[in-house]
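FAQ

Q: What does a record look like?
A: Structure on top, sequence underneath. For example:
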C-alpha cells in the first residue's frame, strides 16, 4: 500500500512537471513569434500604395486663392474590406499659404483644411461622402453626398475644384507666395483596433505633398 501511494505521487508529480514544461515551451514559442513580428524589417512588409498628385493649380482671384487638384491612388484590399463592413474612412486635404521672405523662413499667412468622411451603407448599397472644414467624427448626422458606385465616390474624394484656401485680404499684391498642399488618410479617427493594426503597415500609408508657386499674375 505504501509502495502504491509512493509511485502514484511520483507519477502525478512527473505528469505535472511535464505539463508545466510543455506550457513553458509553448509560451516561449509564442513570445519568439511576437518578437520576430515586431522586429520584421520594413522590406518584409507589403509595398506602400502609390499616391501621386497628377494635377495641382493655385490661382489668385478677386475671391482669394483657389486651389484645384487631382490625387491618384488605389485603396488597398484591407481598406476596401473595412469599408465593405461599414467602417468609414477619413481623408484630409490641407493647404498652407506662405509669403516669401528672403531674410528668414517664409511666413505662414493662411491654413485651410478639407475633411472627408467616406462610408458605405450595406443596407442601401450606396456610398456617402461628407466634406467639412473641421473634423467630422463618426456621427451620421452631417449632411453629405450619396453615390451609387464606389468609383463615383472615390472620384469625389480624389478631385478638388476651386477650393478657397486664403482670402484676398490675406495677400499683399506685391509679395510672392507659395502653397504647400497635402493629402492623407487620417488613421487617427479610425476605431481603436484599426489604429493599432495600421501602425507600421504600408497599406494604411496614403499620403502625398507638393509645393506650388503662386505668382503675382495668377488669376489676372
Amino acid at each position: 500500500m505504501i509502495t502504491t501511494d509512493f509511485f502514484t505521487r511520483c507519477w502525478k508529480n512527473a505528469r505535472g512537471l511535464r505539463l508545466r514544461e510543455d506550457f513553458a515551451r509553448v509560451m516561449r514559442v509564442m513570445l519568439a513569434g511576437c518578437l520576430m513580428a515586431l522586429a520584421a524589417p520594413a522590406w518584409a512588409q507589403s509595398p506602400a500604395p502609390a499616391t501621386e498628385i497628377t494635377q495641382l493649380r493655385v490661382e489668385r482671384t478677386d475671391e482669394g486663392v483657389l486651389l484645384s487638384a487631382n490625387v491618384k491612388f488605389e485603396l488597398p484590399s484591407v481598406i476596401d474590406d473595412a469599408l465593405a463592413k461599414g467602417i468609414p474612412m477619413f481623408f484630409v486635404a490641407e493647404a498652407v499659404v506662405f509669403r516669401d521672405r528672403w531674410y528668414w523662413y517664409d511666413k505662414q499667412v493662411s491654413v485651410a483644411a478639407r475633411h472627408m468622411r467616406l462610408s458605405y451603407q450595406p443596407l442601401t448599397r450606396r456610398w456617402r461622402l461628407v466634406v467639412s472644414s473641421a473634423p467630422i467624427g463618426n456621427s451620421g448626422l452631417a449632411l453629405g453626398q450619396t453615390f451609387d458606385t464606389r468609383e463615383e465616390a472615390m472620384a469625389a474624394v480624389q478631385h478638388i475644384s476651386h477650393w478657397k484656401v486664403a482670402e484676398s485680404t490675406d495677400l499683399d499684391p506685391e509679395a510672392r507666395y507659395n502653397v504647400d498642399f497635402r493629402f492623407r488618410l487620417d488613421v487617427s479617427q479610425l476605431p481603436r483596433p484599426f489604429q493599432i493594426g495600421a501602425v507600421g503597415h504600408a497599406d494604411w500609408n496614403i499620403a502625398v505633398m507638393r509645393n506650388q508657386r503662386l505668382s503675382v499674375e495668377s488669376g489676372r
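Q: Is there anything notable about this one?
A: The beta strands are 51-60, 64-73, 89-99, 107-121, 126-132, 145-147, 159-167, 177-185, 207-214.
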